[in-house]
Amino acid sequence: MLQQNKGAVSEASQTADDFxxxxxxxxxxxxxxxxxxxxxLVVVSNRLGNIRDLAQAGGLAVGVADALARRGGLWLGxxxxxxxSAASDEPLIHLxxxxxxxxxxxxxxxxxxxxxxxxxxNSTLWPLFHYRLDLVDHRSEFLDAYRQxxxxxxxxxxxxxxxxxxxxxxxxxxxxxxxxxxxRLGLRNRIGFxxxxxxxxxxxxxxxxxxxxxxxxxxxxxxxxxxxxxxxANFRRSVQTTKSIAFDGNGTANANGRPVSSRCFPIxxxxxxxxxxxxxxxxxxxxxxxxxxxxxxxxxxxxxxxDYSKGLPGRMQAFARLLERHPEHERAAxxxxxxxxxREQVGAYxxxxxxxxxxxxxxxxxxxDLAWTPIRYxxxxxxxxxxxxxxxxxxxxxxxxxxxGMNLVAxxxxxxxxxxxxxxxxxxxxxxxxxxxxxxxxxxxxxxxEVADALAKALAMPLEERTARHGxxxxxxxxxxxxxxxxxxxxxxxxxx
Length: 497
Ligand code: ADQ
Description:
10-stranded mixed sheet; 16 strands; disordered N terminus
């Protein structure tokens, strides 16, 4: 049921205007750090995670749902339903409660949403932040829609807040201007922003004519969080270049008379939950694995959204090079690539799909015989429980993005392994995860021979070396897991660290 924001539920009955008036009556509430756990958490992301079925949820949803469930909280995201074009400009929100979590799905105008999501977010910012200036599409109507949608999110959120000590946690590149839009509405709450994707170096960042606006927006947050130290350094240098504002030794800068803290919070996974799922593999996954065991076939696996940042054609070429340079792997190794459809309205994604299908076809055409298909390529979303089983049943995890904020599949591969007989992770040095996972075989994905040789090394690695590497990696992903990620971000957001 969609309803007008005003009066939707008692707790959320204020409009933005009511809220500002209410705040004026209260006066500027003093911001104290307080106990992060006692303050309501409000999460905002472009889409809502599936909190009814967390087993099927990845990344962000796993990371924040637990915090929301424990302390109670609100999650605002765009609705899958669009706003009727004849509707008034009041935010149209569908509210639902699951346990202690309230979700608010905001209906947005279709055309404006598309120019914001397919346009500015995924045709301008995504390629720019993944160092792909060649793919950046600048259009003034994209930027206008991006700002307009962020203003709609801000108005909706202001109407849903009931307390000025609610902690607000904004996620990802879709919502960079949200903090500034909330400030314009008079909000003085602590607001934090976490960027899930890389932040480019200043030389690339200034290639967008909007760079100064984006930096001004980011400086309106109290905490700006990144996946890696490299991203933090790129951000700080970009602030220095565009605004001549420097960060101190603690990563804090003084902008607009307020401190802004910038730090790295590497995202992690729920290791035990993923390991359990991997252990309970579906029957057909087990049968497939037994069949390979009987045939003596080892499996290399890749799991990704079909995105040009993931380096998929190069990965297939590296597998073909493995067969060329190490012919003992012909009929002895097989490569399974699951690449789920994503952002198909954006031109660059149609191109990568065609390129990948052509590469898979060419390699199979050259090497396949009746008993052996070198590359199995699945262009469909696969349930997570199945993915976990497939990761466990694969002797090599191949994760070779050209640029990636973190890459959770790398961590999921480690969690899924049997510690007594683990597989080997081959990981791109350009994934944020490479900073933590140094016991993986780290490769440069641009050098096909290097990836092919790492695959050969992984396939031949003795048990003793595999268990030693895996043990160290497992320790690392346990230390930096999903709980630690949200604990450290929320403590910084509450001003406690
Ligand atoms: P993504 O680019 O989506 O996320 P990634 O971290 O690898 O990249 O994947 C997120 C989740 O989606 C994982 O849990 C994975 O299992 C799942 N997934 C991937 N491919 C799938 C498929 N084909 N079918 C089903 N599920 C699939 C962005 C950033 C990353 C960052 C995350 C989290 O680009 O760098 O790690 O956010 O911050």
